[in-house]
Amino acid sequence: MKTYFLILGIGLLTLYQVEAQGHGPIYGLQTPTLAKGGINMNVAGMSIATEDETSYMLRHTLFYGLTEDLQITLTTPTIIERLEKAPRTRGNNMMPANGDIEAALWYRFFSNAFGVGKRFESTAILGVSAPTEDIRGQVNVGNSILGAISTGYASRTWYAWIGGGYQYYFEKNYEQLGDLPYASAVVGYRPNIFMGDYPKPDWRIFIESLAEFPGDNKYTGQANFTDERSKKVLVGPSFLGLYGAWGISFGALFPVVQDLTPGAVKENYRVSLNLSYWL
Q1: Cα(first)–Cα(last) distance of the chain, in Å?
Q2: Residue-wise burial string across 117-154, b where 16 or more C-beta atoms lie within 10 A, e elsewhere
Q3: What element of type H or E holds 17?
Q4: How many CB atoms within 10 Å of residue 237?
Q5: pLDDT in tens for each of the 279 residues of the chain?
Q6: Of the candidates 30, 38, 212, 61, which has an alpha carbon nearest to the alpha carbon of residue 125?
């Protein structure tokens, strides 16, 4: 872990003249979008640990607000160490937890501000991705498309989001990585002590949950029923701190349900640390 955070620190040196996106969770789907013309750069260090091995990765994510309700994102990985038996997962709400390069369009199609600092809103996401490796989990991995939707409530004190998504991988060399339906739910709280204006720091705490239901891999059109997939439900805390133009978030997820198929590897935890800067 010391090596992991050292590498993350080096990666953070590349963060400059940027603006972060939302004041939300790490793993669960959320709804905020950037203001028109807003630019965001997020640098994240991510790790997934199984009972056999641990992965380490940096991700650099760029956001740009086309309008107040429409934004585009581009995220690229720096792989440090891969998992030989990688779980089928998104991992994070704004970026994949694997070696994909991904571009996405976020559209906040509903927003209702019904009080001071209070609002309901819903956002849809459509993305495309290309893998940086040829084989993932002993299967040829092709390009993919992603669709997701989230809705929620936000105020100065309480936050709640629910959402779901679906990722579909295209066939490559007569093999096809299984699809990935997933869902998330998040509850957040901002203590009264952190409601002061700058230069006071501002912290929020979230309880996040993520459920994943990966499908079967396919070989020459036939499902592989010995696939090492597994269905999981993960729960854990995350924290978001804001100070002036800076934001930092960190959190972890731990499996509470793992419906493992024969030969599948048990997952132990996921951790993430993100740094952002607002212009």
Answers
A1: 31
A2: eeeebbbbbebebebbeeebbebbbbebebebbbbbbb
A3: none
A4: 15
A5: 544 444 444 444 333 333 334 568 999 999 999 889 888 888 999 999 999 999 999 999 998 999 999 999 999 999 999 888 888 888 777 788 888 999 999 999 999 988 778 999 999 999 999 999 998 878 899 999 999 999 999 998 999 999 999 999 999 999 999 999 999 999 999 988 777 666 777 899 999 999 999 988 888 766 665 455 689 999 999 999 988 778 899 999 999 999 988 778 899 999 999 998 776
A6: 30
- Picking from 241, 267, 240, 238, the residue whose alpha carbon sits closest to that of residue 254 is 267
Domains located in the chain, CATH noted: 2-278 (2.40.160.40)
- Torsion 47-100-63-19 (CA) sign: positive
